[in-house]
Prior knowledge:
- The structure holds two protein chains of two kinds.
- Helices cover 33% and strands 23% of the residues of chain A.
- In chain A, α3 packs across α4.
- Chain A is built from six helices and eight strands.
- By secondary structure, chain A is of the alpha/beta class.
- In chain B, 37% of the residues lie in helices and 22% in strands.
- The relative contact order of chain B is 0.23.
- In chain B, β2 and β3 (43-44) form a beta hairpin.
- Chain B has helices spanning 20-30, 46-52, 57-60, 63-86, 133-140, 155-167, 186-195, 220-235, 258-269, 273-277, 291-301, 335-341, and strands at 3-10, 36-37, 43-44, 91-97, 111-114, 118-121, 149-152, 173-175, 204-209, 242-248, 253-255, 305-316, 322-333.
- Chain B is globular.
- By secondary structure, chain B is α/β, with parallel strands linked by helices.
- The chains are: A alpha/beta, B alpha/beta.
Amino acid sequence: MSHHDITTETISFRGAHGDAVAGYLAQPRGRGPFSGVVFLHHMPGWDEWTREVTRKFADHGYATLTPHLFHRDGPQEDPVALAARVREAGGVPDNQVLGDIAGAMAVLRGLPNASGKIAVAGVCSGGRQAYLAAALVPGLDAAVDCWGGRVVPQQPDDITEKRHLVGIDLTDRIACPLLGLFGNEDSNPSPAAVDRIEAELKRHGKPYEFHRYDGAGHAFFAADRPNYRWQQANDGWQKVFDFLERHLKD
Amino acid sequence: MAKLTAAFGSSHSVMLTCQLEDWQRGFKVFDLKGRYFDRQGEPKSYEELLALAPPNAADLVTDEAIAKRYHSVRDAIARMKADVLAANLDVLIICGDDQHEFFSDDLMPPFVIYYGDTILNPQRKPVAEGPEAWYKRAQSLRQEEHGDVHYPVRSDMALHFITGLTDMGFDVTSMKKTPPDQYEGHAFSFIHRFYMNVEKPVPVIPIMLNTYYPPNPPTPARCIQIGQALRQQIESFPEDLKVGFMASGGLSHFQAEEDLDDAVIDALRRNDLDFLSKLSVKRLQAGSSEIRNWLVLAGCVGTDFELDWVSYNPGYRTPALTGTGLGFATWKPNAAAASKAA
Lengths: 250, 342
């Protein structure tokens, strides 16, 4: 596949409640039309690997906006140090994330070379948020959940005042095709939890495809971490781009 | 070019999200503290209204009579949802009143077109137990059960309406984003929750009309003119789109006035814009003011649509005949429009 020349910039856009939110935007250059991806970063924050992934989507021809979901908690702070603090405080409210996703979608839709089609994709906590968005954010054409934990609550503190939405209970509302990638050595989501999600998707007749990888645990795409599993990650990325090709480019 | 292909009018009263026992019991207490207007537009208390009630009023609010109306209204809501979905619209214009939701006495525009990319209907908040919890719970049912939902808005067409109406001499208030922590009003959330397929909502264009608040609600004649101008702007939008119009609100309340509602529905049936434009503003007070939304619709559909289906129930709920005129109606293009299209 030929790559795309891209441009990147850090922008400020209107997220939930009209708040100014920072986002990293990577766009293929040219007339397009290009479909969009809202990429949701992992719990370790809006970090360097997150920006690499944003550019990877753009390289494959998707205008991609990655909202800094923790921005409000420390606009001037180093995103990695900030993430540790936000994590300690229990993350960010689900409804705020849904609003930030809707705001990011509006930015992508407004790009002059936009095709009008948009997917949401997320890893780790962002995977769960992508699952919630598939159910609750109107106007998505596809969703990618990479090892999103807590879609099925596994521990008593998986549901909190901020993280109050129970993904699996929203499955009947999912309105777009869903791709799920999971490591069989992950503990959240455990293989049993993934089984439950899959059963629920089947029960409601939702279009989905799941791929599960042996020899991989949580975050096996994260090239800057010991969890990285290059073979599984390469295959997983192939699955992501095949899926987006089918649902965003027709 | 875009085309108006369907039109709908619907009450959005809290009665529609209440339970039968609330109609039969709750309002009998709740309505005692209300403030009302008589048919001359003079303010009245509940007791004064009770004294004016006709001799058969008690018969109109027996449990049985109320239950019959309740079930008729439930059927009407189901029919309306089916009709809205069957219209297979690309965009739905919703004209509804703003009751101190976005606007208050520090700024009260006569009418507003919203052109943000999305509009928020928030997750409902838990209702504290108390004597009026049933009422607050019913109000909250217009909001989302799970997380916040940011509904799509057809912002390019909304912007076209704003610039087009301005060119035509209308002083439009435009709204690009909502104030912090505020969200769409009940006239809009009711339509989203009750008439849309939540998995694939139709993009909307919210038009907020100041029906209620003196000193500047648009006159009936002006409401009709706004509707007529909107029709021109719909049909000058360059994309091929199926456009629907929803009037959200009314009919008479907070005492149900069958005479007023019947007159309005009859005039709508015969496309009598002259009669509608001369409606007395003294009759269009408090909740009855929401009939203005239906006047904008009347202007928009003009003479090439016809009233196709009406469900009307005077929602009496106390012996003083307080309540809401619960109206639902759909319009379809008539023969004249069909021959014009051919």
